[in-house]
């Protein structure tokens, strides 16, 4: 026997299949459905929720129910990258600053910067603990917390790293202003101007900015969207060039979202040991995997002290607090001094707030919810791109984090697309800024950790239309 709400759901599904309600369009309200089918509001809600459970529609807060975009087929991933095999001086990164300034407008749809929307973060808990911490440490917060940083915070970080299979003493940790400063200090300690640094390709544009500012040369290593940096290519580069350091984001990389296997992490450490180079590990996304278990760090396989570990709470807790850390090993004294002469200290209150969140704020409980939220956000964005962008579009399949790397079909120029999108109030990140040699002209990166509403949906439809026009033109 078919129940009444199932009949209504089937009627709506037929309308969707026939194109009466198209992808991204709003369905009739609960009240209107009740009137149209002469059913109770509870029955109407049950019908809508059945379609939602089936993945046909989605609820948007204070807006109603909308038809979900449908993938035309299983979308292919981009293939292994093939960058230049020679070191190059990094230039052109001033484009990043222009884009950030243009996109730093609350009226823009923020798909460009890798910053989660406040709804993805424990803002209320951070606000509560900020107030209590300010009262508790009223005197201390007005003073510098000179390097290496607040002992309470370093103890909490050491505890977490040890629980994750990477035993670290609190005295091995240097607190920094985010992960970007941690990487900068690590590179400054290892290199001098003119040195060669191996990087993934594509890689985080912020790292390229650091390399450019330090007058270093970058050699881009081919990187697979599922397996990570190509160890064979890295081996060849180490044999051909005097590489000083290699930098990887082994867990849910930016922009590809891959997670290296333990076997490959171990092999990577063995490779750098053979060639006696240093490895800088950026693990800023490590807590944001979609699985139940946190992946290991490359540092956990380090027996010779060649891995400098960098991370922060900017993606998982609060970008605005700017609290990160560095485990520099034998270079501790050098990096501590560099930290001091650069900016004296990381703000005291921010350090104490994070320490309180880690100890009393239910951080792990929040992470369990956040991982599910990020996974759903990535799936939703993937479906939208697959539904709105032209055939031939390729998309990565991240295992964690909240970013998508999108290969556009044909010869669509990402820089031009970005400029057109900005003019329409939409911020995206063009592929060339993720390469030292401005490769990836037909790639863009999208931030999935955004509040989904009708305005965002229309922005994605618009992006798809812009790409289609370029193909037609």
Structural summary, described in words:
The chain has 473 residues and is an alpha/beta fold. It has three domains: 4-67, Arc Repressor Mutant, subunit A (Orthogonal Bundle); 121-363, Aspartate Aminotransferase, domain 2, CATH 3.40.640.10; 365-472, Alpha-Beta Complex (Aspartate Aminotransferase, domain 1), CATH 3.90.1150. It has helices at 4-17, 30-37, 41-53, 94-103, 123-136, 151-163, 178-190, 205-213, 231-240, 262-275, 332-343, 348-360, 363-388, 414-423, 454-472, and strands at 57-60, 64-67, 88-89, 109-110, 174-176, 196-201, 217-224, 228-229, 243-248, 278-282, 307-312, 324-327, 394-395, 403-407, 426-427, 429-430, 443-447. Helix 6 crosses helix 12 (348-360) and helix 7 (178-190) crosses helix 11. Helix 8 links the parallel strand 6 (196-201) and strand 7. Strands 3, 5, 6, 7, 8, 9, 10, 11 and 12 form a nine-stranded mixed beta sheet that branches. It has a four-stranded antiparallel beta sheet with strand order 13-14-17-16, covered by helices on one side. A two-stranded antiparallel sheet has the order 1-2. It has 15 helices and 17 strands.
List segments where confidence is low: pLDDT < 50 over at least 5 consecutive residues: none
Query: Cα distance, first to last residue?
Result: 54 Å
Strand content: 5-15%
> Which structural class fits the helix and strand makeup?
alpha/beta
The CATH superfamily title of the largest domain: Type I PLP-dependent aspartate aminotransferase-like (Major domain)
How many strands, what sense, and barrel or not for the largest sheet? Answer: 9 strands, mixed
Corresponding CATH architecture of the largest domain: 3-Layer(aba) Sandwich
Fraction of residues in helix = 40-55%
Question: What is the 3D shape?
Answer: globular
Count of DSSP helices?
A: 15
**Rg, alpha carbons:** 24 Å
Strands, count: 17
CATH class of the largest domain reads Alpha Beta
At the fold tier of CATH, the topology name of the largest domain is: Aspartate Aminotransferase, domain 2
Average pLDDT, to the nearest integer? 91
């Amino acid at each position: 026997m078919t129940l009444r709400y199932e009949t209504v759901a089937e009627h709506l599904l037929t309308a969707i299949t026939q194109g009466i309600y198209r992808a991204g369009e709003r369905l009739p309200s609960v009240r209107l459905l009740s009137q149209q089918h002469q059913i109770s509001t509870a029955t109407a809600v049950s019908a809508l929720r059945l379609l939602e459970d089936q993945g046909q529609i989605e609820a948007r807060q204070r807006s109603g129910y909308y038809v979900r975009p449908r993938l035309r087929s299983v979308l292919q991933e981009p293939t292994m990258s093939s960058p230049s095999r020679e070191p190059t001086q990094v230039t052109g990164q001033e484009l990043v600053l222009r884009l950030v300034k243009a996109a730093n407008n609350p009226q823009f749809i923020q798909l460009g910067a890798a910053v989660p929307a406040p709804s993805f973060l424990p803002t209320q808990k951070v606000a509560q603990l900020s107030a209590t911490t300010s009262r508790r440490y009223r005197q201390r917060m007005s003073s510098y917390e000179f390097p290496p940083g607040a002992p309470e915070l370093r103890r909490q970080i050491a505890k977490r790293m040890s629980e994750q299979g990477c035993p670290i003493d609190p005295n091995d940790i240097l607190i920094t202003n985010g992960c970007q400063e941690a990487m900068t200090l690590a590179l400054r300690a290892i290199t001098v101007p003119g040195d060669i640094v191996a990087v993934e390709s594509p890689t985080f544009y912020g790292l390229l900015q650091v390399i450019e500012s330090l007058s270093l040369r970058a050699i881009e290593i081919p990187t697979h969207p599922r397996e990570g940096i190509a160890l064979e290519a890295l081996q060849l580069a180490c044999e051909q060039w005097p590489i000083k350091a290699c930098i990887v984001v082994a867990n849910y990389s930016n922009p590809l979202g891959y997670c290296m296997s333990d076997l490959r992490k171990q092999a990577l450490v063995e490779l750098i040991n053979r060639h006696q180079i240093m490895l800088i590990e950026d693990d800023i996304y490590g807590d944001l995997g979609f699985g139940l278990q946190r992946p290991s760090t490359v540092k956990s396989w380090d027996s010779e002290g060649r891995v400098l570990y960098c991370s922060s709470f900017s993606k998982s807790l609060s970008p605005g607090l700017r609290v990160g850390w560095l485990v520099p090993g034998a270079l501790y004294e050098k990096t501590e001094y560099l930290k001091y002469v650069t900016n004296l200290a990381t703000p005291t209150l921010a350090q104490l707030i994070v320490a309180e969140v880690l100890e009393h704020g239910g951080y792990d409980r929040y992470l369990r919810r956040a991982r599910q939220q990020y996974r759903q956000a990535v799936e939703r964005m993937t479906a939208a791109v697959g539904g709105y962008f032209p055939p031939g579009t390729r998309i990565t399949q991240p295992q964690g984090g909240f970013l998508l790397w999108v290969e556009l079909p044909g010869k669509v120029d990402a820089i031009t697309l970005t400029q057109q999108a900005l003019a329409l109030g939409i911020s995206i990140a063009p592929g060339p800024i993720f390469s030292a040699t401005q490769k990836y002209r037909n790639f863009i990166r999208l931030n999935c950790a955004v509040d989904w509403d009708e305005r965002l949906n229309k922005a994605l439809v618009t992006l798809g239309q812009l790409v289609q026009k370029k193909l037609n033109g």
